[in-house]
Amino acid sequence: MPPDTTTVAPQSVAPSGAPASGRPADDLRTLESGLDALQAVPSTEKGSVRRILEGVLPPVLLLAGLVAVWQLYVVIARPRPDLVPGPLDVLGALGTAWADGRLQLAVLTSLERGGVGFLIAVAIGTPLGLLLAEWRPLRLALGPLLSGLQVLPSVAWVPAAIIWFGLSDATVYFVVLMGAVPSIANGLVSGIDQVPPQLRRVGTVLGAGRIQLATLVVLPAALPGYFSGLKQGWAFSWRSLMAAEIIAMGGTIGFGLGSMLQQSRELADLGSVLATILLILGVGILVELAVFAPIERRLLRRRGLTPGGIR
Amino acid sequence: MSAAPAVLPAIRITALGKRFGADGPLVLDDVTLSIQPGEFVCLLGASGCGKSTLLNIIAGLDAPSTGTVTVASGSAAVMFQDAALFPWLTAGRNVELALKLRGVPRDKRRGKALELLDVVNLADAASKRPHELSGGMRQRVALARSLAQDRKVLLMDEPFAALDAITRDLLHEELERVWRETGRTIVFVTHNVREAARLGQRVLLMSSRPGRIANEWRLADDGPRRIESPEVSRLSIEITEQLRREIRRNAA
């Protein structure tokens, strides 16, 4: 009454097309190659022209539609031009700002400050995140505080920074750092937390020491999480910078986009205000598209993770 | 030192016991075992018999609570159920990383990695990334990676359990060929009776809670076996009978 073995191990009944007699190694190789070919995942990579077309066309069409509706409203309803300027007024304001050089100056000043502030934030946030991820006592003590700081709007630091540093670039950088450092550190921490324990075990089995494990296994594995922390860090840098520039004007602080916005408000020039808002938005989108999106796409595609949404 | 036997065992386990936590349940109890160099041993048991724990202890990933484990060659290579390839590296680079950690100089790594990938018939896939490979191909890269470690002992923790039957059948053949060619000592953990009877020179059945070695079968090695062959079936029936007895014991 031996049990039917096929019930015991049904998955063992493996059919095979090869003859039952001893097979030479070459036969196994062709068999394997055949199976590999059957199981190969066909590449579904889109051409870059098609990808750009799919990524660029819809938002551009939507934008054109919105501007058209705006223009139509201005033409038909004829609202007070100082309250609702038309698209052409905004374009005119941009032209004027370009002509007298304020636009170039403001964009360059803000971009430079945002960029430098962001890089300093990376330089501080990265080691901080590493320490937090690897040293438990620090994590227990500082972790909640850092998460709290991430929620605190960094504009709240502007009054204090003005009192400490006066109307100088230090004020602006301080506010930017308070906004960006927590995001970057937290991004790295969550990236490291999400490294599958199995990969660490493999690293250990392969003979990696502590340092090698960190540099060759943990950090590369944590890269996607770290990168989204960087992206968020940039967003916080840019926002904090604008807030700081709007509130803190004059002194030795240079003329940035936030200053331009505030200046336009003081002149009650709504066309220029809207133009500056569009500029701030435009720079943000440009940095995302030109810097972060391509890196992120490459990073995720190399790991077989498709980026969310089309960029 | 006492007089050494003619051949030192590749792995010697003496009175091994394992508990997780100070008063946790006993997972392994008094396991004593010695495995000869070049032997292919299958550790077979139902879920929770501690076979993976035993493997982890041999690998040095876990510490025993009592008893000793000695791996003559120092340390062992390990292969897991999921290939656990590094997803940011190509198949070739995954193997190269193992070579790098072993201390192989940079200019030799590339060629050596290709050689090892060719052993598992994947030299053409060296530039592919893990997500572009099928499950079976990934396990073969993992096999090449563990061969790159160049350790005499290879520990395998249900490496083919997640694969489909056709692929697994081929990988059995592949592994057997690699074993015959490289003369490695292999400890292969599985819950699949036929797999154990197909591959092992020695099949060790473990009982559950606590895990002990319940029985042992030695198979005459007269060349490659097929999983469909009558001797494998006969042995599977016998092992399954006892496996079921061991499982029934837990019902009370």
From TrEMBL, chain A:
This is NitT/TauT family transport system permease protein. Belongs to the binding-protein-dependent transport system permease family. Signal peptide: none annotated. Gene3D superfamilies: MetI-like. The chain crosses the membrane at residues 56-76, 115-133, 145-166, 172-192, 241-261, 273-295. CDD domains: TM_PBP2. It is a multi-pass membrane protein. Pfam families: BPD_transp_1. PROSITE patterns: ABC_TM1 (PS50928). Keywords: Cell membrane, Membrane, Transmembrane, Transmembrane helix, Transport. The lineage of its organism: Bacteria, Bacillati, Actinomycetota, Actinomycetes, Micrococcales. Residues 1-26 are annotated as: Disordered. It comes from Cryobacterium psychrotolerans. InterPro entries: MetI-like (IPR000515), MetI-like_sf (IPR035906). GO terms for biological process: transmembrane transport.
From TrEMBL, chain B:
Keywords: ATP-binding, Nucleotide-binding, Transport. Signal peptide: none annotated. SUPFAM superfamilies: P-loop containing nucleoside triphosphate hydrolases. The keyword Transcription regulation does not apply. CDD domains: ABC_NrtD_SsuB_transporters. One of its GO terms (molecular function) is ATP hydrolysis activity. It holds the Pfam family ABC_tran. This is NitT/TauT family transport system ATP-binding protein. It comes from Cryobacterium psychrotolerans.
